[in-house]
Amino acid sequence: MTCRRLNLFRDFCLLLIVSECICGPSALPAQELTTPSLKEGVRAYYQYWKGKYIVPSSRFTGDFKVDVDRKGKTVSEAIGYGMMITAFMASDDPMAKTYFDGLDSFRKRFPSAINPAFMCWKIPANERPLKDDCATDGELDIAYALLLAHKRWGGEVYVAEARSLIRAIGSALVRPDYSLRLGDWNDAPGQTRPSDFMPVHFRAFRECTGDSFWGKAEDRSYEILDELQLGAGKGTGLVPDFAILREGSWIPAKAGFLEGRHDGDFYYNACRVPWRIGWAAVLTGDKRAKGFLERFMDWAESSTKDPEKFRAGYRLDGVPVHNSDFATSCFISPTGVAAMALGKKVWEGSVLCHALESREEYYEDSINLLCLILLSGSFQGSGR
């Protein structure tokens, strides 16, 4: 499918999507306008992604993992992505449940050394990991994927697993002030990662558990994002990979805080935030999500004009980081979800052209596919 053909159908490819919470319906109005050509493009991309990254376990018959380095290594983040993707795409793949169950089985074989309710965040190719801890984002996505599976395939096993994991996340990975820890190892106060803020997941967790705790976690996430955008990100709407609480205010972490010199920049963690918050804006219509996206997209449109020129990393003042002058889907495709949420059709259409043609590596391709699923409406009927 060419970009020219896609553009001919732009108005029909844009979606006004109703959210039906995983464990119960919502009251939002629904309308879906899409084209077979766009759906076909997403199906083709899913087949490419599945063929490249979902591989059998080398030790456990019937288990699967997501290969992150083409050598067999995996991480909990990848397992969460894989479980969400296979649940979303189940209507297009008769093997989806087999893959989902294999991924779920695999992750349970490798518990965190700190809290066995969670998955050890890194599994080497030989599948004999050293004792290690968990990462919050993987656990959140895995729990949400289990709820998707319950809606998709029924039965009580998936939802029971989800509820157990959700309880563990609430007690171990969310602080008393409702900010998110980085993992089960993160005992220090006032440290968080904005890309872990997942309002859609928190709404689903609240629907399933009936616990208002998750509404407070959602509120806290938006509050932190606002502080970061209106503080260090004022004028750009950018937020950092990691944030810390200092003298009562959330600010960007310093270089070298956890992963490297770009920990306080809009980099390979924070690039996911427009996708996560755009997803929330589309499904929930939350004004806080839209406000966040408006600040970000106002800057993105005025500074880059063209999504293909969106750089692979920025300081929070909008200056590109060193060696970022290239196009990559993990930065570009999330802006398409943000544009979709705000009705910015031209930007969204350009992102779709890029996303459907992009072929990179595990991280970029996985984020790209998850964004494409949203942009195409392929998650319709999956029980969000």
Description:
There is one protein chain. This protein is mostly helical. The protein has a single domain (3-376), classed as Glycosyltransferase (Alpha/alpha barrel). The chain is 49% helix and 5% strand. The chain contains 14 helices and seven strands. The protein has helices spanning 3-8, 10-13, 36-53, 76-88, 96-108, 136-153, 157-172, 199-209, 213-230, 273-284, 287-304, 329-342, 345-357, 362-376, and strands at residues 54-56, 64-66, 74-75, 122-123, 191-192, 243-246, 249-252. A three-stranded antiparallel β-sheet has the order 5-6-7. The protein has a two-stranded antiparallel ribbon with strand order 1-2.
List the helices and strands and how they pair.
Blueprint: H1 3-8, H2 10-13, H3 36-53, E1 54-56, E2 64-66, E3 74-75, H4 76-88, H5 96-108, E4 122-123, H6 136-153, H7 157-172, E5 191-192, H8 199-209, H9 213-230, E6 243-246, E7 249-252, H10 273-284, H11 287-304, H12 329-342, H13 345-357, H14 362-376
Antiparallel strand pairs: 1-2, 3-4, 5-6, 6-7
CATH class: Mainly Alpha
Shape: globular
Instruction: Using the coordinates shown, work out and report the CATH topology.
Output: Glycosyltransferase
Strand content: 5-15%
Largest sheet: 3 strands, antiparallel
Strand order of the biggest β-sheet: 5-6-7
The percent of residues in helical segments reads 40-55%
String of helices and strands: HHHEEEHHEHHEHHEEHHHHH
Overall tally of domains: 1
